[in-house]
Amino acid sequence: MKPEDQADAFLRNISLETAQAYANRGRRHEHVPTEQLVDAWVVAFKIWTSDYQNALLRGFYEELEAELVLRGIEPPYERVKEAADKLRDIARQLIDNLSPQEHARVSADIQRDVDAFTAAARAARKN
């Protein structure tokens, strides 16, 4: 598997795990009409990116996205391009400001998560 494919699969897995956790909590947005759900996701994403450290805003955005995932609907990223670009810029700045030790620790944490995912995927294919 190419690194890009592995990264995509890893991120999809995180999305599915988030959706599963949301479903286990009771799918609070299950009865929201799809068009309203999509619009709410757009608003929630934009608000969250303006206050990305706010755990409540992130949780609300993630719940809406989880409901979209469970419905098989791709979030409309094209509608939040400016906010997503802003968030990527913030992420780059945060990464650039890490000390070498912090960068190594974060990289090791991410690699450990990816390795665990890869090992679980290989084990699942064997079964």
Q: TL;DR of this structure?
A:
The protein is 78% helix and 0% strand. By secondary structure, the chain is mainly α.
Features:
127 residues, mainly alpha, 78% helix, globular
The averaged pLDDT comes out at 89
Q: Give the SSE string.
A: HHHHH
- Looking at how many chains there are and whether they match, the oligomeric state comes to single chain
Question: Runs with pLDDT <50, length 5+?
Answer: none
Structural class by SSE content: mainly alpha
Looking at the structure, what is the overall shape?
globular
Largest sheet: none
Total E-strand runs: 0
Number of helices: 5
* Domain module count: 1
What is the beta-strand fraction?
A: under 5%
Tell me about this structure.
The chain is mostly helical and 127 residues long. The chain has one domain (3-96). The chain has helices at residues 3-25, 34-50, 55-70, 81-96, 100-126. The mean pLDDT is 89.
